[in-house]
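Sequence, please.
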């Protein structure tokens, strides 16, 4: 990853995704996708460096998945890695099916490694398939508290934190 958040996000995303920097519509869609995936709200015309970096990182992780966190593979920990801070901030994507306006919809949830580790330990989940199933069940159990029009990742993180109480 080469972008540090201080430059123009349009040029960085265009380079990352192989687009022309003049393709404003497509880049705006990419920024919107990342903001929704990250749970960023607000319509600020100027993004902070931290927000630009988070948007870039979200797309970078989406385009360059980590090989040891495929959907149906168990999450593998080295003894040194499990309690190390390196894994804590890796992004792990889970493909889940939710009901949106009465129709099943396949989408992804991106969680940080520290949330995945905590979820595994608290609920004794063995692999990513079990985590995905837990997420889908938590969404179903949330009922009226879950709003399918709100950012999915943000709501799933809230459900995870609430499950610890």
């Amino acid at each position: 990853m080469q972008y540090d958040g201080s430059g123009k996000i349009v040029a960085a995303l265009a380079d990352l995704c192989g687009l022309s920097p003049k393709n404003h519509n497509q880049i705006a869609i990419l920024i919107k996708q990342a903001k929704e995936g990250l749970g960023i709200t607000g319509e600020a015309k100027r993004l902070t460096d931290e927000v630009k970096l988070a948007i870039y990182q979200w797309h970078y992780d989406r385009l360059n998945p980590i090989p040891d966190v495929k959907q149906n593979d168990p999450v593998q920990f080295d003894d040194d890695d499990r309690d190390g801070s390196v894994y804590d901030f890796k992004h792990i994507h889970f493909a889940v099916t939710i009901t949106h306006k009465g129709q099943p919809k396949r989408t992804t949830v991106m969680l940080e490694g520290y949330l995945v580790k905590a979820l595994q330990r608290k609920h004794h989940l063995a692999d990513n398939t079990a985590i995905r199933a837990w997420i889908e069940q938590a969404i179903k159990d949330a009922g009226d508290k879950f709003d399918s029009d709100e950012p999915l990742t943000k709501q799933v993180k809230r459900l995870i934190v609430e499950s610890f109480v």
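The radius of gyration is 17 Å.
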